[in-house]
Amino acid sequence: MMIHANLRKGLFAVAIVAGLGTVPFAQATTDDVAVMPHSNDQAVVGKIDDAMITTKIRSTFAANKAVKGGDISVGTMDGIVTLRGTVTTAREKSRVETLAMKVKGVKSVDGSALVVSPDKKSAAVQ
């Protein structure tokens, strides 16, 4: 019992030291960002926009019952979306590309890495 209590206290102390140890670095990084020229700020904003676009596309796929979004990888670079993975039909591929294109901030969608491959259940029925 005493060993567990000491272990918990030790882990708690390590977590506090680790958490407080990063504070000065975070502050220095924030100060450095404030000194950076304007063009670098735009690059950071672009990366955040790309991450938000990717997240929005993934959530759109998850919300759409006609799309199996778990089989599709989404990448975004400067507003250009790249889709990779497997879809069951050409219609689903087209649907995925259309849904991705409708997301705000998307400049273009490259779905050339999407492979149309019927799933085992539908292949067995045919």
Can you give me a brief rundown of this structure?
By secondary structure, this protein is of the alpha+beta class. Helices cover 61% and strands 18% of the residues.
Category by helix and strand content: alpha+beta
Q: What percentage of amino acids are in beta strands?
A: 15-25%
Largest sheet: spatial strand order:
1-2-3
Order of helices and strands: HHHEEHEH
Gyration radius, in Å: 23 Å
Tell me the span between the first and last alpha carbons: 63 Å
The helix content, as a percent range, equals 55-70%
Largest sheet: 3 strands, mixed
Low-confidence stretches: 22-39, 120-126
Number of helices: 5
How is the quaternary structure best described?
single chain
Structure overview:
With 126 residues, this protein is α+β, with helices and mostly antiparallel strands. It has helices spanning 2-21, 23-35, 38-63, 90-101, 120-125; strands at 72-77, 80-87, 108-116. A 3-stranded mixed β-sheet has the order 1-2-3. A hairpin with a 2-residue loop joins strand 1 and strand 2 (80-87). The chain is elongated and about 65 Å long. Mean pLDDT is 74; it is low at 22-39 and 120-126.
